[in-house]
Each structure stands twice: as structure tokens, then as C-alpha cells.
Amino acid sequence: MTTSTNGKFDRKPLIAGNWKMNMDHVQGITLLQKLAWTLADAEHDFERVEVAVFPPFTDLRGVQTLTMGDNLPVRYGAQDLSAQDSGAYTGEISGQFLSRLGCAYVLVGHSERRALHGESNELLATKVAAAYRHGLVPVLCVGEGLQIRQAGTHVEYTLEQLRGSLAGITAEQAETLVVAYEPVWAIGTGEVAGPADAQELCAAIRTELAQLFGDETASKVRVLYGGSVKASNVAQILAERDVDGVLVGGASLDAAEFANIVRFEHHLVTD
Ligand SMILES: O=C[C@H](O)COP(=O)(O)O
Hints:
Blueprint: E1 14-18, H1 25-41, E2 50-54, H2 60-67, E3 75-78, H3 95-100, E4 105-108, H4 111-116, H5 121-133, E5 137-142, H6 146-151, H7 154-165, H8 171-174, E6 178-181, H9 195-213, H10 215-220, E7 222-226, H11 234-238, E8 245-248, H12 255-262, H13 264-270
Helix pairs in contact: 1-2, 1-12, 5-7, 7-9
The structure holds glyceraldehyde-3-phosphate.
The site of glyceraldehyde-3-phosphate (G3H) has 14 residues, from strand 8.
């Protein structure tokens, strides 16, 4: 995109779909084909707005096949990875395997993994390091629950997650980092954070990144918002200065809806 005075448009918007534990390998292919056709019909410019999907592990080989060559420039990643590289870790998936399957990204520390699998900031820092070791870009998820939001400590809580989960990474590694701010109270609930709420936290995250890694690095990091994003609310959220994209759950399972989210700039023109 072209340069703007605030620098936002130096960062290519990223529209990411997290399929969670939905879509088996056959359904996943069908969904991605529908998305491809819809975006092709709309002549979507993937150079302008990047599209990525995060299917279940078992879908990744099929997604790789479908996106090979230049036919479908959708990028993809896994929803988690092991902190280890190989060995006796039954049930774990190495970043090395993901890399060999053509993954560009990997989600790290999604709130569902933090809550359901007890993933701590300390563990997540080792997963972030593993992602970089294997050439994957981590999409680090942070965000507060309802009680913390109601207590008014959401900014400090989220920044603590950020600092803890990035412990040990270098400024050079951080340049490619993606952070997703996802308030837990807005995930799958239909409750969407207002654009001003999203901006407040995304800006606070960028300021913290600047303190950790310097202004230049922080200006390159893409900070996404996630939580009940739909085609009807995405344009307002992405109009905010520090929001560089969205991480979409439920609405990414519907090809037409997700394609409309990808085409958010058209809503800006027509809304
Ligand atoms: O990873 C995606 C988020 O958990 C948001 O999910 P949602 O769009 O269904 O609220």
C-alpha cells in the first residue's frame, strides 16, 4: 500500500481466518475453494490486502496442495506448535513439520489455549522462540477476560501477557511479528469491542513494543484485532490507526462472509 502520514498503510493489512476445531480435511478444501472463487470473481488484490487461514493440523496438507503455485496466494498457518523441535512428545507438532508443509504463520497463545490448556506466558515465550527457529511468523494472541476488563486493568494485563510471551526475542525477530489483541469477552459472543477500544489496546501494544524493541521495529509489527468480527463491523475497526488487520473466528467459516471481510475497503467506500 502507499505511504500515509501516520505510517499505518506501510503495514499491509492482514485478514486472518482461524477455523479453530472446525472443518475436516474435505470440508476445508471446499471452504478454501469457495473463498478462492469468490475472491477471484471480485478481482481481489492479494498484494494490497493479505489473506491467511489457520486450519486444523489435519487440513494443512490439503491447503498446501490447493495453494501451490500462483493460483491462490492465500497464506496459511497452524493454530499451535510445540516448544520442542522433535523427540518423545506424544501428540505434539513441531514447527519444523509446519514449516515443511509451507506454513508461513503459527498462532501462539490463543486465549482458548491459555484457558483450556493452561498455557502460561513463560511457555508461550518458548513457543514464540520455536516458531522463529523454524522460519514461521508467530501470531501472538493477547487479551483480557471480562472480569479484568470490568476491573479496569485490561491494558496492564494485556501488556504483561505481551512482555512475558516475547521474553528473549530480538528486535530483528520482532520486525516480522504479528500480535492479535483479542478480548476474551468478545470471542464468539457477538460482543464486539468498539473501534475505540480496539484502537486503545492496539496502540498500547505498539507503544510497549517500541519500548521493548525500538520505534522502527514497533512501526513494522502488525497488530490485529479479534473478537466477533463480521463484514458489517470490519471497516470501522480497520479505520483505526493502529489496527492493521483482523483475526476472525466464526465468520471465517463462511466463504462469502469471509470474502466480504477481506474486501473491507469496499465497505469503507460504500458505507
Ligand atoms: O481467533 C479468533 C478469535 O477467537 C475470534 O473468534 P470469533 O470471531 O468467533 O469471535
